[in-house]
């Protein structure tokens, strides 16, 4: 019988967007574009998900350039992959504030092994997007930042949330990172598709690090409180 690791790795390998994106938007698929992400993420999942233990889903927005865009693991930048997960990343180091927050929270929860035994983090849209600024710099872009983009990826989002649920995750509660547009979109989608019995939204790690860093410990305590409720 396949393990969670086997199923997650297979899910990531099949990710491919075949629709048409609005002009100027580029899709970011680390499992097709990067030599490192498939190898590093497989090592990660074999280390922490090589079992049959059911878990709860946590869904962020979509992958970012300096986190899973590089490592293939949500909210895990190269720095955390090496220093926290002790998995080699033979490429350039990068720092993602969201990843810093998530791993601080995970350590407060009781450690990486304990956390990943209970939870799995991915995204509402499992592939990321970038857009070029006026000076030609490529920056992250969210699936909900443009109505045309959200419409273009809507069927892709539905298909892949369903596929993730079918990997064997619990559906009583789904956690959502983001209490603004991501939460609103996921709640509306869930009303239509009945994926989960309940959605619990938590402030997005990036928002906390950017605007609420002085009270970061309060948000970590809130996260842990909400996570522990489903484990009782």
TrEMBL record:
Record-linked InterPro entries: Phe_SMUG2-like, Uracil-DNA_glycosylase-like, Uracil-DNA_glycosylase-like_sf
Pfam families according to UniProt: UDG (PF03167)
Source species, domain of life: Bacteria
SUPFAM superfamilies: Uracil-DNA glycosylase-like
UniProt domain Uracil-DNA glycosylase-like: residue ranges: 47-227
The protein's name in its UniProt record: DUF4918 family protein
Organism: Mucilaginibacter sabulilitoris
